Every structure is written in structure tokens, then in C-alpha cells.
């Protein structure tokens, strides 16, 4: 997982940030645009994705490579949220109060990343399994978005069947 940057902010105002500073300006431009009414939201930006976890008017943003599995990114954000002190106005009145906490937190993030990288297999079957998991995750996310936007599930299934038929005409039948 390529973790680049993390920031905690409140309604567009950055409070504390840690990580690769070359991403800082991109995230600072994003903060005012974040939809704080959604618990989780992703913003694609060139070759990176900004994953946002919103809670009590605060946003935790984690910037990763775009190919990182979103479930893994949100698991990381949840772990970050758990390590933060309870959200309250007094604790966030000064930026410096969180800085030591975030520095130790980022060390934990780096350890989690290293453990993940060391533990994941590099053989063809493991790589294929990760690709399938990521594809499934994207399909579930797209289906959820389609349903939330009001698309009828039956219409969605018909469209999927049409796409599969087109694919089979172009490529040939799938072998399972």
C-alpha cells in the first residue's frame, strides 16, 4: 500500500497533517470540497485517491495510490480514528495538541503498511486473488452507487447481461 499523506480537519480547515508534503497542497484544495454529510467518500486525483472518513464535523483524509483496495484504505482510516483522542472542541483548539499523537500514529501506520507488504504473497495465485478481490470490491461499490442513485436493480442486471453478451462476441465465452 502506498500511503502518501494524512490530514485531520474540520469543515475545510486542516488541523494536523503528516506524510509526504508534496501531496499537501492537493489535499488542502480538497478539504473545502469534502461532502461532510457522507460517512465515507473517495476523491480520485490523477494517480492517487483521497479516502475520507467523516465524523462529528471532522474529516480524516488518507491519500493512497489509486490502485489500493478501498476496503484496506478505510480499515486504515478506522484504525487512525481509533488512535485519535476523542473529538472535542477543546482538544482541537490548538494544532500542536494533536501533533505528538499523529507522529506516533504515523509510525503505527508505517508498521501496518510494512506488515501488510511483508505478509502478502507475490505468487501468481495470490496476485490473481487480490485482483479478483479488488474487482469484486469495485463491483459492489458501483452497484451500491447505482442503487442509491435510483436505478432499478432489474434494469442493472439486464444491462450487465448485455455487457456480458457483447464481451463474449468480442472475446469469446468465459472459461471458469
From TrEMBL:
Q: Which Gene3D superfamilies match?
A: Longin domain
Q: Where is the signal peptide?
A: none
Q: What is this protein called?
A: Uncharacterized protein
Q: Which UniProt keywords apply?
A: Coiled coil, Membrane
What is the annotated localization of this protein? Answer: Endomembrane system
> GO CC terms for this protein?
endomembrane system; SNARE complex
Cross-referenced SUPFAM superfamilies, in alphabetical order?
A: SNARE fusion complex, SNARE-like
| Similarity-based family | Belongs to the synaptobrevin family.
> Which residue ranges does the record assign to the Longin domain?
30-84
Q: How does it sit in the membrane?
A: Single-pass type IV membrane protein
> Which species is this record about?
Didymodactylos carnosus
The V-SNARE coiled-coil homology domain covers 124-176
**What does the entry give for GO biological process?**
exocytosis; vesicle fusion
Q: What Gene Ontology terms describe what this protein does at the molecular function level?
A: SNAP receptor activity; SNARE binding
Amino acid at each position: 500500500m502506498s500511503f502518501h499523506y494524512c490530514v485531520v480537519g474540520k469543515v475545510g480547515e486542516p488541523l494536523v497533517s503528516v506524510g509526504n508534503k508534496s501531496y499537501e497542497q492537493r489535499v488542502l484544495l480538497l478539504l473545502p470540497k469534502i461532502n461532510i454529510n457522507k460517512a465515507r467518500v473517495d476523491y480520485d486525483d490523477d494517480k492517487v485517491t483521497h479516502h475520507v472518513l467523516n465524523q462529528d464535523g471532522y474529516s480524516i483524509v488518507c491519500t493512497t495510490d489509486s490502485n489500493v483496495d478501498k476496503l484496506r484504505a478505510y480499515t486504515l482510516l478506522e484504525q487512525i480514528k481509533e488512535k485519535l483522542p476523542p473529538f472535542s472542541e477543546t482538544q482541537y483548539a490548538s494544532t500542536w495538541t494533536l501533533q505528538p499523537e499523529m507522529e506516533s500514529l504515523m509510525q503505527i501506520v508505517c508498521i501496518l503498511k510494512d506488515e501488510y507488504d511483508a505478509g502478502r504473497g507475490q505468487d501468481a495465485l495470490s496476485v490473481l486473488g487480490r485482483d479478483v478481490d479488488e474487482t469484486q470490491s469495485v463491483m459492489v461499490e458501483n452497484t451500491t452507487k447505482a442503487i442509491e442513485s435510483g436505478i432499478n436493480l432489474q434494469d442493472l442486471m439486464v444491462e450487465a447481461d448485455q455487457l456480458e453478451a457483447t464481451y463474449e462476441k468480442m472475446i469469446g465465452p468465459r472459461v471458469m
